[in-house]
Amino acid sequence: MKVKNICCIGAGYVGGPTMAVIAQKNPEIKVTIVDINEERINAWNDSDLSKLPIYEPGLAEIIKDTRGKNLFFSTEIDEAIDRSEMIFISVNTPTKTYGKGKGQAADLKYIELCARNIAKVATTDKIVVEKSTLPVRTAEAVKSILDNTGNGINFHILSNPEFLAEGTAIEDLLNPDRVLIGGESEEAIDSLAMVYNSWVPEDQILRTNIWSSELSKLTANAFLAQRVSSINAISELCEHTEANVDEVARAIGMDSRIGPKFLKASVGFGGSCFQKDILSLVYIARNYNLNEVADYWEQVIIMNDHQKRRFSDNLIKTLYNTVSGKKIALLGWAFKKDTNDTRESAAIYVADHLLNEQAQISVYDPKVPKQKVYADLNYLNTRSEKENETNVAVENSPYDAIDGAHAIAIMTEWDEFRNYDWEEIYNKMKKPAFVFDGRNILDKNKINKIGFKYYSIGQ
Ligand code: NAD
Ligand code: UDX
């Protein structure tokens, strides 16, 4: 069946960019993205494209091209569901913060609400596509809700996990390594494959059973995060042995069996996916009593927490064991470059640790607004909102952030950080002027020559 109307529930980092690309590549399909968050929908509809709720290189251009033609953002959820033959569920699936599985299991309440909503309003047969990342066997629950609370119509469930990375979402969507579709109904799978076929070659569209598809998403993220934790583990060993982690990464990455990607040592991985999805995997394994499997993957998170902690501990130790009353400038707040997303960013935890030691924090990030920095810190509940406000300054210019600072900590690998006038920065700082490069992006020789005391990861 050729689909004419698509509805996507969830106008977030996945729903927005993914549907924008689907709409651009399928001008004959009407794509409606719906969300309960009215403010977010209004931002997607803002005529000023700089106000879109998500920053991704290339996204604004596609929105400009498609919005109002065959791409629509709306809060009229029921109407969009009923009109569409295919409904993507792209809502958030965060780690549970309450009850059984608190701190580990994926919270599926939003998924269930979507399934119930679809069942309630649908009057014609629907293909329901799981776009959110879900624990393996979630489709069973979704199907049961749809079949038991629906209006006696047919629902086909497909799993179509999204592999885009933030900061490169549009590029990843336009040139995916593969598109994965899991399901039982060949016809439903073909309908979804046809949507992607508009730009993705058939041999890159992988068809599997639904459980393999659900589990592949968690597995992919676990493997990627595991590589970062592996190289970060080696970075600590490098610091004790005069080996250089970037050289080690290069040397092992040239082994075609290992490959060069995802071997960049850092202050620790962040983002909304890696930690959440590994925790979910660990929880699932424990549920099946597979304790060795659970322990194995849990170690990836333990290593990552260690890496974040180690970074701030090193900073404090180097600053003569106290940062109390000292100004520390954090360059970057986003969890990686080219995004305004700060979820689970290492910067949050490093700042929190330094604030516990009574540091004065100043922050500069090219894309993260001031309120977001405070919201991230307040969410931790470590201290009062007032204290965060008093001890953290968020600046619009990097030169204001570093003015009078004892140390700079580079938290995000934004390209612009490399090109700053580091001589001027040096002159504006307290001496000795320390730089802690959590991303190994600066030229060590150049920075040392200016007079900085430079510390990087694994060197
Ligand atoms: P997000 O929080 O940015 O967006 C989710 C949106 O869903 C929110 O705007 C929220 O208001 C909306 N929503 C929640 N419940 C709703 C309901 N009942 N009805 C209507 N709207 C509802 O999340 P995201 O980053 O886009 O992630 C979505 C899913 O995709 C998650 O499962 C995530 O694991 C997965 N994923 C994310 C990424 C990524 O890079 N962010 C990549 C791959 C997969
Ligand atoms: C990840 C997956 O890459 C993507 O396929 C999935 O769909 C969602 O989760 P994302 O979290 O957006 O994407 O970004 P990613 O590029 O994977 O980076 C995650 C974190 O790891 C970032 O904090 C990044 O800085 C860090 N990282 C990544 C490293 O520290 N070193 C590396 O070599 C790679």
From TrEMBL:
It catalyses: UDP-alpha-D-glucose + 2 NAD(+) + H2O = UDP-alpha-D-glucuronate + 2 NADH + 3 H(+). One of its GO terms (molecular function) is NAD binding. Substrate binds at residues 162-166, 217-221, 257, 264-270, 335-336, 439. NAD(+) binds at residues 10-15, 35, 40, 91-95, 132-133, 166, 273-276, 343. Pfam families: UDPG_MGDP_dh, UDPG_MGDP_dh_C, UDPG_MGDP_dh_N. It is an enzyme of class 1 (oxidoreductase). Pathway: Nucleotide-sugar biosynthesis; UDP-alpha-D-glucuronate biosynthesis; UDP-alpha-D-glucuronate from UDP-alpha-D-glucose: step 1/1. Residues 329-444 form the UDP-glucose/GDP-mannose dehydrogenase C-terminal domain. Its EC number is 1.1.1.22. The active site is at residue 273. Keywords: NAD, Oxidoreductase. SMART domains: UDPG_MGDP_dh_C. InterPro entries: 6-PGluconate_DH-like_C_sf, NAD(P)-bd_dom_sf, UDP-Glc/GDP-Man, UDP-Glc/GDP-Man_DH_C, UDP-Glc/GDP-Man_DH_C_sf, UDP-Glc/GDP-Man_DH_dimer, UDP-Glc/GDP-Man_DH_N, UDPglc_DH_euk. GO terms for biological process: UDP-glucuronate biosynthetic process. Belongs to the UDP-glucose/GDP-mannose dehydrogenase family. Catalyzes the conversion of UDP-glucose into UDP-glucuronate, one of the precursors of teichuronic acid. This is UDP-glucose 6-dehydrogenase. It comes from Seonamhaeicola marinus.
